[in-house]
Write a sequence for this structure.
């Protein structure tokens, strides 16, 4: 059981700042995802923890000890790469055994441990296969077994599922989580897929442009986004622009909507209101909300996308609502007058997004 | 267009490649076949194994040995130096233009041969060459040591001029195919630089390396022009001997031996190319 | 980018040594050709230019080069197109034949052919033009590869289908769609063929024709400076052509055209 502490990491490449002021604390045996769009710095952060990149300033502490001066081959971390990093000249067995052989373990120990690991990832019987004889999913399992074989203090995964088919991705990510829980090994998982991150992590670190936007549990990230970026990047949000009015309300296109979040902004400020589909409803025009006329409707399973003409906007807007309210959308045909109702407590009121 | 289409559909597939096949047959396959055929014919046209016997006999054994040694030496030296050069060029990040400049140069230099190459070396390390003169100025008597450009060792040096670039061309895809992630994975698992090279890097490069060396061997074995121009036949090589037969420099009635020699050369080169192809398949399987 | 901090001295040394090895003979050629006993002079060059044999051999070599290139392209372009569009099942056969060219070194081709030709049509050996078909064979490998790479890179079948669907006839399609898209490949193949023919020694010397390399070898036996001058000119010219090939083939992407040339 290992703790990982990242303290104020800064990394630049020439003019480009990849990471700025990254600080976070991981508990023992915790599964943390680094989530963000391409270029946000998540992979850079991982590679600094692994030792393949050097931070310009800041420190990485494992179990309270700084490891910055240690080269990657002395940090005892297991790493799984995005693009199959299995040694093509070795069988699955030899790949998994590699780290053990390098540590000069005895032949028996090596064989036993390697077999154990392959069994753990569900590949018993495939020991003699070579990478080019295996599917992508199988290769990544071998890569995982190989990383775990050396009993690393920390497990690092750099977008290990991104190159796999959708179905394999889903099943493999669950398997990874199960194995991780069983072994209780502290893990950092880098991904740009928010569904992945939210599904399997204990906590998620959302990064954007080198900065840590929020580090919290998946529920918190989704329901209480700390910054506009998190609100927009994670899940879907309906967005409206307005001006803050007195008494905890926002004036959106002439309609006064009561929003708890409005109180933290000065009256008259231009703001953007972000609200989840689950907290948006299209109700009878008598209800307090934004008046609109439905133009068309697109059913998408658990979500429905309504193209509507808000009275306050010249162009049509797409409003996304979820089926939480139980299929009461059949009446929303073209021409229906509705009121767009926003749940006051869960809407995020922030400065206008770019 | 429709009538043209219909006509096309009635034409069998082989019609379109017929001209190519005819040219290939008349000027490649038939002469090659003639070599095989004539190697087994005696002066009266009857079947005989005498030519083969003579060609592999004591008279020409020296030629095969020298050719073999020359090819082996330049293949191994060129192979090692070429691989080292490839690794150096591929991994050096500055100057940026080095990699593409080297690649272009190699494409050009591997083709450099025959007459101009011979003269270039005569001008450098020939008895009246520039380098020879410069060395003399600093007190080293090159030709005094028994070295001569017009000898076996001279040829080795000259051949290297096109062997090294050829190796670079062959090894570049293999060296660049060494994914950074393999090195990082090895390091993450605790391997030192030496262990990475010993267990992963070198094993992965070996098939390409052997394939390259074999290709270089075939390349040197088949070379005629450079050796001929430089040594005028004073170094006993198989292609030179074959050349004598074409020029009529041997006793009449013995021409079958020339064909036998040529047959021997074709066999050696074909074997080498076959090995190279098989090894290349292995390389592409691993780097795909 | 990794944190490797060691200065690459060893690697730089290797590169430097190799560059020196490659550069010195060329420099020597240049210096040699411009010096005689008493300092710098262009006497060697003027002697060559005044030699009528020089112009004859250049003329012959250029003629052979142009003929070979044109005929080779006339033969190979339709073949490659046909194989690609109509008869892909024969691709393996054609590739095998181009590989065969490497297995039959020019010197063995000469002995096989000379016996054949002398036996059958003695008169044919009277004209240097007999070299052309053999040169075409020598060029098979890289011409096919270059054209093949070019065809692959433009998804020819789709272009042809699009042209047909818009009403273009065969001739139109070939002229307006196919050939322009193969321009770089054709140029690459052409440059390579010219280079190979200009430098070809084995066949021309043994069939006793006075091409440029043969002339050069001849000069080399008597005038060292003249030979060096000739060699330098040839080198510069051919290397310029080959650099053009490299630039062209880089645009084609990936195909190492340089590997495909057998040394002569």
């Amino acid at each position: 059981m290992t703790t990982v502490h990242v303290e104020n990491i800064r990394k630049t490449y020439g003019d480009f700042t990849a990471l700025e002021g990254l600080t976070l604390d991981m508990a023992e045996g915790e599964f943390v995802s680094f989530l963000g769009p391409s270029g946000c710095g998540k992979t850079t952060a991982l590679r600094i923890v692994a030792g393949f990149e050097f931070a310009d300033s800041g420190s990485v502490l494992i179990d309270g000890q700084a490891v910055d001066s240690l080269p990657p081959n002395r940090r005892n971390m297991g790493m799984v790469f995005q693009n199959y990093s299995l040694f093509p000249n070795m069988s699955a067995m030899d790949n998994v055994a590699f780290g053990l052989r390098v540590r000069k373990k005895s032949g028996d120990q090596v064989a036993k441990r390697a077999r154990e690991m392959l069994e753990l990832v569900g590949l018993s019987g495939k020991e003699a296969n070579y990478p080019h004889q295996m599917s992508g999913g199988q290769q990544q399992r071998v890569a995982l077994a190989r990383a775990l074989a050396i009993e690393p203090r920390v497990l690092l995964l750099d977008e290990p599922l991104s190159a796999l088919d959708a179905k394999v991705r889903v099943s493999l990510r669950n398997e990874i989580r199960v194995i991780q829980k069983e072994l209780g090994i502290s893990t950092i998982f880098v991904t740009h897929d928010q569904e992945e991150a939210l599904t399997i992590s204990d906590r998620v670190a959302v990064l954007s442009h080198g900065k840590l936007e929020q580090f919290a549990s998946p529920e918190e990230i989704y329901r209480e986004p700390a910054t506009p970026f998190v609100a927009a990047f994670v899940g879907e949000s309906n967005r409206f622009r307005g001006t803050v009015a007195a008494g905890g309300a926002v004036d959106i296109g002439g309609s006064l909507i009561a929003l708890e979040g409005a109180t933290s902004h000065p009256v008259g400020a231009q703001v953007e209101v972000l609200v989840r589909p689950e907290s948006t409803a299209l109700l009878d025009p008598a209800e307090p909300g934004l008046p609109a006329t439905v133009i068309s409707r697109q059913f998408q399973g658990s979500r429905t996308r309504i193209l509507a003409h808000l009275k306050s906007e010249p162009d049509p807007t797409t409003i996304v609502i979820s089926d939480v309210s139980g299929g009461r959308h059949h009446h929303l045909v073209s021409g229906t007058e509705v009121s767009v109702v926003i749940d006051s407590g869960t809407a995020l009121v922030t400065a206008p997004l770019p | 267009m429709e009538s043209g289409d219909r006509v096309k559909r009635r034409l069998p597939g082989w019609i379109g490649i017929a001209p190519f096949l005819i040219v290939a047959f008349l000027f490649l396959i038939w002469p090659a076949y003639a070599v095989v055929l004539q190697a087994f014919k005696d002066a009266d046209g009857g079947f005989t194994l005498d030519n083969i016997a003579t060609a592999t006999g004591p008279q020409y054994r020296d030629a095969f040995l020298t050719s073999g040694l020359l090819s082996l030496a330049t293949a191994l030296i060129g192979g090692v130096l070429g691989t080292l050069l490839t690794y150096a060029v591929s991994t050096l990040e500055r100057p940026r233009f080095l990699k593409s400049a080297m690649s272009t140069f190699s494409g050009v230099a591997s083709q450099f041969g025959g007459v101009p190459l011979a003269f270039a070396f005569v001008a450098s390390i020939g008895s009246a060459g520039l380098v020879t003169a410069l060395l003399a100025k600093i007190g080293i008597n090159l030709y005094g040591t028994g070295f001569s450009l017009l000898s076996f060792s001279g040829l080795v040096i000259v051949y290297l001029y096109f062997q090294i670039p050829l190796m670079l061309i062959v090894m570049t895809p293999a060296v660049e195919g060494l994914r950074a992630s393999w090195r990082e994975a090895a390091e993450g698992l605790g391997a030192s630089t030496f262990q990475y090279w010993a267990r992963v890097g070198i094993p992965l490069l070996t098939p390409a390396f052997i394939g390259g060396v074999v290709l270089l061997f075939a390349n040197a074995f088949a070379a005629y022009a450079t050796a001929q121009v430089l040594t005028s036949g004073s170094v006993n090589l198989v292609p030179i001997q074959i050349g004598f037969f074409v020029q009529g420099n041997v006793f009449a009635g013995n021409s079958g031996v020339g064909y036998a020699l040529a047959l021997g050369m074709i066999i050696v080169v074909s074997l080498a190319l076959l090995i190279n192809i098989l090894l290349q398949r292995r390389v592409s399987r691993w780097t795909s | 980018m990794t944190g490797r901090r060691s200065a690459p001295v060893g690697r730089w040394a290797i590169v430097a040594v190799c560059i020196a090895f490659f550069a010195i003979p060329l420099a020597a050629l240049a210096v040699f050709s411009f010096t005689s006993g008493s300092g710098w002079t262009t006497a060697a060059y003027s002697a060559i230019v005044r030699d009528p044999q020089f112009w004859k051999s250049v003329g012959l070599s250029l003629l052979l080069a142009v003929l070979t290139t044109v005929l080779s392209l006339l033969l190979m372009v339709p073949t490659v197109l046909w194989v690609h569009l109509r008869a892909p099942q024969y691709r393996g056969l054609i590739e095998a034949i181009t590989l065969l060219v490497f297995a039959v070194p020019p010197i063995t081709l000469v002995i096989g052919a000379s016996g054949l030709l002398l036996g059958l049509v003695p008169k044919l050996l009277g004209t240097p033009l007999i070299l052309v078909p053999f040169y075409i064979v020598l060029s098979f490998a890289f011409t096919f590869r270059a054209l093949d790479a070019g065809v692959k890179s433009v998804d020819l079948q789709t272009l042809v289908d699009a042209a047909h669907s818009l009403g273009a006839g065969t001739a139109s399609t070939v002229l307006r769609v196919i050939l322009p898209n193969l321009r770089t490949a054709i140029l690459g193949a052409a440059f390579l063929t010219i280079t190979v023919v200009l430098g070809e020694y084995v066949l021309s010397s043994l069939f006793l024709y006075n091409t440029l390399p043969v002339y050069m070898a001849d000069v080399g036996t008597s005038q060292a400076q003249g030979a060096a001058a000739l060699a330098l000119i040839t080198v510069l010219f051919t290397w310029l052509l080959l650099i053009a090939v490299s630039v062209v083939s880089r645009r084609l992407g990936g195909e190492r055209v340089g590997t495909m040339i057998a040394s002569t």
Observations:
- The CA atoms of residues 209 and 261 of chain A lie 26 Å apart.
- Chain A is about 25% helix and 35% strand.
